[in-house]
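User: I'm putting together notes for a lab meeting next week and I want to include a structural view of one of the chains we've been expressing. I don't have a solved structure, so I'd like a prediction I can at least talk through. The sequence is below, exactly as it appears in our construct file.
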Amino acid sequence: MVSTQYAAEFGVTAEQCLDGTGLQLQQLLDPTAEVTARHDLMVTRNLVDLLGSRVEQLGLEVGLRYHLTAYGIWGFALMSSPTLRAAVEVGVRFFDLTFSLGQLRAREAVDGELHLILDAPDVPPGLRRYFVERDAAAIMTIYRALLPDPLSRGRIQFGFPSPTGNLDRYLEVFGVVPTFDATETIIAIDADLTTAALPQANPHTTAVAVEQCREVLARRRARSGVAGRVRDELVADIADPPDADRIAAALHMSGRTLRKRLAAEGTSFRRLRDEVREHLAEELLITAGLPVEQIARRLGYVEVSSFSQAFRRWKGIGPRAFRKTQSGVRLRAQAPEVPVGPPADRI
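Assistant: Thanks for the context. Below is the predicted structure for the 347-residue chain, given as structure tokens.
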């Protein structure tokens, strides 16, 4: 709800921010509600359209509202790390557990500086600056919570042009005036600061938090990265599922690039489509109790027999037999995940 809460300060309603997303306000108030990257992208478009001309450096303002406590177990892992360098290593390793749609890498420079490299290659070009600035401001908010020291002994550069007007707000956020038109966006931290002990360091807490991050990430890996965005697109229109080229265009990449990215994540378009259909079929059979014929249509199958054959391939039995074996109990019931910040807080 971060974006919608910020927008409310300017008289913009949550309903205006959610326009066209398919989300309702009550879903944002539900801690179990899941907000996807696709939703975040749509809300961001609305936010930029509604406030872009009224708020300079909108990404910075929203990013400042992502406090460390909002990140759940990921935040605990950072907070309890022994040093800033250790916190960065944990943060980058489990970055997929954050609310970011961008990418974060760490690199050590020859002079010992620690570089945090930010990018957002998977979002539309017109929104990349917003997301990069949002992530940069969020990182600085986290940085100050870990070690209250601005970048007076570091620097920051952005890979896009300098904004019109003064740079006072950048100075307030980062503690230094950034440089612009760089080849990449980097937050550079002085080498001495990276080895400073963090005030809330706790080896036991770190070990427990890192292990929980590993478990949560393993469960969420299937819906992160490009694969996660493909799933979002498929779920949004599963009755008439888009082909790979159509989804590639929606993600602003070529079909070839999409196939390569999915292969790098250990999956394929066909496998993702089958996974989405399989999961939704289970939900509709067990939870909704819909007739098999209706489920087949909802999942984009022209013939019920085609759906039944696919289901047998997934489960080893037909859909009707599968429903009988479950006796009304959901197959995929499982213990709740350790929260990584309320999912709806992405927005």
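A couple of points you could mention at the meeting. The radius of gyration is 22 Å. The mean pLDDT is 82.

User: Perfect, that's what I needed.
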